Amino acid sequence: MARKSLIQREKKRQKLEQKYHLIRRSSKKEISKVPSLSDKWEIHGKLESLPRNSAPTRLHRRCFSTGRPRANYRDFGLSGHILRKMVNACLLPGATRSSW
């Protein structure tokens, strides 16, 4: 189980990313359209003034049930060992155990 403070920090980052998403996207489109280098630097300065935690690269997927940050499967939103337990218990429809 992940510490609650780390999970809350991740939720805070998600809220910030949603808040500044449109500003960040429009600034990046402006940079690609502006021909002069000095104008690009000004727009880049605006991007740098946004909070660091609002960048989408700072987001990290976590397991839905345990909050574990590693080995997550996007389709299920679960970490590997929780996914395996749920498949073995037949709690996930359509998922089968592998055997060879």
Features:
elongated; mainly alpha; 52% helix; single chain; two-stranded antiparallel sheet; 100 residues
Structure, described:
It is found in: Plastid, Chloroplast. This is Small ribosomal subunit protein uS14c. One of its GO terms (cellular component) is small ribosomal subunit. Part of the 30S ribosomal subunit. It comes from Pterocarpus santalinus. The protein has 100 residues and is mainly α. It folds into 2 domains: 1-59; 60-99, 30s Ribosomal Protein S14, Chain N, CATH 4.10.830.10. It has 3 helices and 2 strands. It has helices at 4-33, 37-49, 80-88; strands at 72-73, 78-79. A two-stranded antiparallel ribbon has the order 1-2. Helix 1 packs antiparallel against helix 2. The two termini are 32 Å apart.
